[in-house]
Specification:
Length: about 120
Amino acid sequence: MNRLRHREGFQGARYEIAVASAFVRCGFEIEWLKNTEKKHGEFVATHKTTRERIAVEAKSRHRKGVLHESGMPASEMLADVGGLYDDALTHNPGNMPFAVFIEVNLPHEPERQGLEKVWGRDL
């Protein structure tokens, strides 16, 4: 809740909640992880029927002009998520399946489809 109340933490916390809500809609229970002694994901999702557990890490790219960041977004931005992905991998607990979700936070381009988008080719 504290991160949602502060501009600096809002974007990441908002995305983590969005990812968790998708798991809840798919029949998972969420266990938020709070231990700050070592790197770990945001939460562990446990399926209500199968009891399979999945560690989840969510990353959100901060961009100028998006969600409390000053500036205007450029139309030819690259995905630029390699560093986020590499960092996310350091949160893998190694003892269960691990899922990484990355919000690229790029402007909507309805005139371009799939890999026609500059950021799509960059991925």
